[in-house]
Amino acid sequence: MPHPFTLSTLFLAGGQGSRLGGIDKGLMLFRGEPVAARLSRVLQQVGSEVLISCNRNADQYSQWANRLVSDPQPAYPGPLLGVLSALRVAKGSHLLVVPCDMPLLDVPLLQSLIALAREHPEQAVALQSGQQLQPLVCVLPLTLLNALERAWQAGQRSPRRWLIEQQVLTLRIAEDDPRLLNANTPGEWETTSTPS
Q1: Rounded CA gap, 6 and 48, in Å?
Q2: Which residues make beta-bridge pairs with 169?
Q3: 71 vs 75: CA distance, rounded Å
Q4: Contact residues for 145 (Cβ-Cβ < 8 A; gap 6+)
Q5: Most CB atoms closer than 10 Å: which of 22, 61, 63, 88?
Q6: Domain-located, residue 187
């Protein structure tokens, strides 16, 4: 008998915002509100709990999450550790991961990714735009926790390389899909925040 598919979700906001001069990217304003507020609402529509990986401003992030996770190591070791920390505590059978710098991600796109994960519940799935893997928009079965623990201990720090090692399945979308706009500079956030 197949195990039920239940989905926890993770919003990655644990970086140091180096390309924004140290500003916490998850708190950047997007159309009048912090991007974390918007993406949390999106995640609430597709999953049973929202986890936020953050290493500062926990008081603010706590209003948009069921639970916060933080890196157990200092000096911002990268998003893969945020994913690992969330896999350790997630209640679902699977974990949907999204980054804080793609403010235009929407429910239909994530539902398509989740549908692929439901069809292949034992495998990692991720978005692919054109030839470009989007490793931080993915769904991971919690059964990969031990594999990620081992990879992290062995020195793996790249989400992309780790997913490829897991023989990740991909949901292909257009290379220029506007929902994957990646906002990393103040100018990009300002442009992105202007309703089209």
Answers
A1: 7
A2: 125
A3: 9
A4: 84, 87, 88
A5: 61
A6: yes
* Residue 40 domain-assigned (yes or no): yes
Q: Which residue do the tokens 């500003």 mark? A: 23
Provide the domain count of the chain.
1
Give the span between the Cα atoms of 96 and 83, in whole angstroms.
10
In a domain, 2, yes or no: no
In a domain, 145, yes or no: yes
Q: What is the CATH number of the domain that holds 30?
A: 3.90.550.10
Per-residue confidence of the chain (196 residues) as pLDDT tens digits?
457 999 999 999 966 544 545 678 899 888 889 999 999 999 999 999 999 999 889 999 999 999 999 877 665 678 999 999 999 999 999 999 999 989 999 999 999 999 999 999 999 999 999 999 999 999 999 999 999 999 999 999 999 999 999 999 999 999 999 999 886 655 554 555 544 4
Exposure string over 170-191, b if 16+ CB within 10 A, otherwise e: bbebeeeeebbeebeeeebbee
